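input
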Amino acid sequence: MPAIALLHPEIPQNAGNIARFSVAIGWNLYFIEPLGFSLEDRALKRAGLDYWPQVRLRIFRSEEEFLTATNARRLVFVDPLGRAPFFSFDWSPNDVLLFGRESTGLSWIGDNSVYIPMAADCRSINLSNAVAIVAYHVAQRFSDFVRWIPPKKGSIYPPAPGLDASPSGIR
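output
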């Protein structure tokens, strides 16, 4: 199964939103330190809602630790300076999609790199939006979630089993 990796993420709301998204597509999520926020940050937890117990998060203390742990997998660098549009890339079910920090992107880009085409007037997209665009495209090829059947109109989504979905229950 592919995975999402965030190299030195800076904004807790983005990281929390991406964590929730990783649950939605059933992927692992990797944070590579240093982070621009604490894992106890209220904004991070709030953006992840009540999904935190389901997030398959691994924290790497350095780029070197991350590269060592993922050396059997192909890294795909997602950056505005990538070589190919993400939709024309030959994706593999073992890929790790690596995204850089919000302010500077990736400081290094390997051979396997993609970008999100956008209008000439725009220099970048929000990190959580970029992750969703590319990861969902890849997930459609390799994930079971596409078999999900939505609830009937008017039904209420229950909180995840055993979780308190009230605002005071945000962890």
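quick obs: The radius of gyration is 16 Å.
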